[in-house]
Write a sequence for this structure.
């Protein structure tokens, strides 16, 4: 924008799907605060995670959560939540979700129809009671992976790189970086192990951003992550035997 940014939006995850929070001071950096720029915290994947004792979603002027069905706390369809400790911002957000109306049929500004469906809210109210236990299970599964991969020597050999074994992490996904990623994915599929590749094309190489003039090789770290990252099963209810089978299959691929 010609007059500079109106808001900053840091991610509350090491990757958009991981669930590991990035610590930042309330309202964001001192520089942003000095310029009156609010920080919008993207905590879409990180519900249940913490950083420096603060829950994800509470470290910016506004925190945003997704309740898409695949999230740690998922509705039956699209849903989300915006949180803030600022009463004026809360009032503005409430009006924005109802076509900019504070009083019904009287529109103070142009908004949208962003109201949460009652059915989605009912599902979330039931599932929210289980979120802490589900998060505990995800963390336990991640710790199990770390021990099992270490026992097999996969990390020491350099076959895979694991996400942090972090008690603050909510592990929306357990994303490894793997050599020969696409061949490994095919191998795991043969063993009936479901995996997922998130964001196989980095943003700077997307067609919609071609006018920015970036080329392959301009952002090598992003390009390497896009070519190596692979999410493996970590959901609550996954048994120790199933986790071990995943590790055994990956180990067998590289031997």
């Amino acid at each position: 924008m010609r007059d500079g940014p109106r808001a900053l939006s840091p991610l509350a995850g090491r990757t958009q799907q991981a669930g590991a929070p990035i610590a930042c001071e309330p309202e964001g950096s001192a520089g942003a605060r000095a310029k009156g720029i609010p920080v919008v915290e993207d905590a879409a994947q990180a519900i249940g995670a913490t950083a420096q004792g603060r829950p994800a979603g509470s470290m910016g002027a506004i925190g945003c959560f997704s309740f898409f069905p695949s999230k740690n706390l998922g509705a039956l369809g699209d849903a989300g939540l915006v949180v803030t400790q600022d009463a004026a911002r809360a009032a503005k957000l409430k009006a924005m979700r109802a076509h900019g109306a504070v009083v019904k049929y009287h529109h103070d500004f142009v908004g949208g129809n962003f109201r949460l469906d009652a059915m989605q809210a009912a599902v979330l109210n039931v599932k929210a009671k289980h979120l802490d236990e589900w998060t505990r299970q995800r963390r336990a599964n991640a710790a199990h992976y770390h021990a099992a991969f270490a026992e097999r020597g996969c990390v020491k050999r350099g076959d895979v790189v694991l996400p942090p074994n972090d008690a603050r992490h909510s592990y929306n996904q357990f994303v490894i970086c793997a050599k020969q990623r696409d061949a490994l994915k095919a191998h795991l599929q043969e063993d009936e192990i479901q995996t997922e590749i998130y964001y196989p094309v980095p943003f700077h190489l997307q067609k919609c951003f071609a006018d920015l003039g970036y080329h392959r090789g301009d952002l090598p770290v992003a390009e390497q992550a896009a070519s190596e990252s692979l999410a493996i099963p970590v959901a609550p209810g996954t048994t120790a035997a199933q986790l071990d089978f995943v590790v055994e299959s990956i180990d067998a691929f590289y031997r």
Remarks:
- DSSP finds seven helices and ten strands in the chain.
- Helices lie at 30-34, 87-96, 118-128, 131-152, 181-190, 220-228, 240-254.
